[in-house]
Design brief:
Blueprint (H helix, E strand, L loop, with lengths): L5 E6 L2 E3 L2 E3 L6 H9 L3 E6 L5 E6 L2 E7 L13 H11 L3
Parallel strand pairs: 1-4
Antiparallel strand pairs: 1-5, 2-3, 5-6
Length: 92
């Protein structure tokens, strides 16, 4: 994947402290890893609970449970962030 690719991060709401809402705190590490590679990220809210999907060129290349991502941080030690990074690199 060339640098400066457009990656759409689609994410659904999840339950925390009794509230079900769309939150981006668990996406910070994922965004940091992708932006460090030179990619542009767009966040898009979806209705599917606990879901994260990465879309490149209209194709879903990666998905996971949002609760499995580490809360906050830079994503360097999160194995899911590294798997997502590799999926984006192999997207072409």
């Amino acid at each position: 994947m060339p640098q400066n690719a457009l990656v759409t991060i689609r994410f659904g709401p999840y339950e925390s402290s009794g509230l079900v809402e769309h939150r981006i705190l668990r996406l910070q590490g994922l965004q940091a890893v992708l932006q460090a590679d030179g990619h542009r990220c767009i966040l898009e809210e979806i209705t599917d609970w606990n879901t994260v999907e990465l879309i490149v060129n209209g194709e879903n290349i990666f998905h996971c449970n949002i609760k499995d991502l580490e809360f906050g941080g830079d994503g360097l030690l999160d194995p899911l962030c590294q798997a997502a990074r590799e999926a984006v690199l192999k997207a072409y």
